[in-house]
Amino acid sequence: MPIKFLDKLSQDLSELLNDKEEYNVIIEVDQEQNKKSFTAHSAVLRYRSSHFNKELTNNVTNDDNNNKIITKPNTSAQIFEIILKYIYGGIINTENMDARTLFELMIVADKLEFEDLSLKLEDYLIESKASWLRTHFSIVYRSIFKNNIFKNLENFYNDIIAKYPNLIFESAEFTTLHESALVSILKRDDLQMKESEIWNYVIKWGTAQNHTLPDKLEGWSDENFTTLKTTLQRCLPLIRYFHISNFDVINKIKPYKKILDEQIWNDLKQHLMLPNQPIEYIILPPRINLTQELPKRINNELFSTVINEEHAAMISSWIDNQPTSYSIRNYPYEFQLILRGSKDGFAPRTFWDICNGYDNTIVVAKVKGTNEIIGGFNPLAWDSTKNILVKTNKSFIFSFEDNNIENFILSRVKNEHEALFYFPIKDKYGPIFGYDEFMMKSDVSNFSKDKQSMCYGSDVYEKSIRSSDKFSIVDYEVMTNN
């Protein structure tokens, strides 16, 4: 049975990296004021990295001391130092590494052909940094298709896009989307868009790739249609033509019939006139409508008993200052449940005990006797030890009337010095936004029993979010978007 001393081996090799006498390779990375040189050993680089093995064989020069020189101007010194320590010691310490650094490290590891490392980092980002991935959608999504290796991230994002397609289709960068990315989206059976809209966006993307095409379709030649057909050859077979209404086939598909294979167009025409007659073209199934699916679960809990995912999307857009119309349709946020009154209890002290230390939290409550939902966002950490007014310019309060997504009031803080109040008497007072613009209170240690909670005035926030009547609640929740 072999006895392994891998930790000692890793330690010794890591110390070799600091040897400034026996090195024979100098690696210059980064640019201008951030430029930095690292020393290394060709034997280690060759056997640990196929990329550096090729570089050392084919593309290096030597300095006056016969050291081999490798330059990596597009790699940051910070990232390369981590990579070099990995080459020698086989260890990456992610404990204090922020999500952006992890992402950049994954990309560099892939470029340098450390496949095991890049894929491990990919999985770690999905498992531990999902919130960051969602809020940095654009930069990450485009990067993963340059090498077409990060399949787990591709699936992670396509799951979001399938549910919130306008996130990508209505973005300003849609027409610059990599072809492989568009194809991977079109393959989704659960893409939540009308097929005629998908067709419109595919045409938009295809024409944008060919700047010489005339602006008006009436001026197109056969050659122009052939150009578009060639550009879209991977996309066109993925359209579910036979699940497009007759009206849209005539008005949207027919003008571009020359980019379709003759068999598809002939079968479409027959289907319009004789929908029950067999055709030769293999009909793709309709895309799955997910609007009736079971409620989303987070940590084995129902997503929310107070709000639905449309509410969550709208609240997410307020946090990031996105247009409301954008958020309702496609904002890919996910909240982590911290406290639920019906599960953890309605005592004010319970709020402080459970939520202490959590930041970026959303408090939502359902008013008893109405369908109103009221809530507030606190970007700072709740602190049960403090009895002070708390300053922030990013908090806001809100309400939804009759549980209606369209009937909302959003009120942002206008006096940042009094944005929140951590009241001294924690056994009676829970979260307080302003002084009493949104305050949860109970004299009997149960928010659901006595009508002591209130939403009075609008001195600290822009406007009042409900009438001045005091109320009790049916249920309430605290969630974080971290």
From TrEMBL:
Record protein name field: BTB domain-containing protein
Pfam family, one: BACK
Residue spans crossing the bilayer: none
Entry GO CC: cytoplasm
Domain BTB intervals: 23-96
Domain TLDc: 305-482
Domain of life of the organism encoding this protein: Eukaryota
Residue runs in coiled coils: none
